[in-house]
Write a structure and sequence with these properties.
With 79 residues, the chain is mainly alpha-helical. 87% of the residues lie in helices and 0% in strands. Helix 2 (11-27) runs antiparallel to helix 3 (32-77). It is rod-shaped, with a radius of gyration of 20 Å.
Length: 79
């Protein structure tokens, strides 16, 4: 799967596929080539998940900063 397609994956989709990749790797019974392909896919899926989580964290940080700024502005008017 190309990275362009990966970018279209939602967090839950990427996470669920990553869980399946890990399950298959842990179960064993795959050839070395299959295991390497699964590992590489898992790495790509982990990057997708990480990007989603970093984006969510940035949005949360921005919202908290905005809220703190609004509270600070409200406090300045009370003096």
């Amino acid at each position: 799967m190309s990275s362009r397609v990966d970018e279209a994956l939602g967090y839950e989709q990427a996470r669920d596929e990553l869980i399946e990749v890990v399950r298959r790797l842990e179960a064993g019974g795959t050839t070395l080539e299959e295991s390497l392909a699964l590992w590489e896919r898992g790495e790509e899926l982990a990057k997708v998940c990480r990007r989603w989580l970093e984006g969510a964290r940035a949005r949360l940080d921005a919202a908290l900063a905005e809220e703190a700024e609004a509270e600070q502005e409200d406090g300045e008017g009370d003096s």
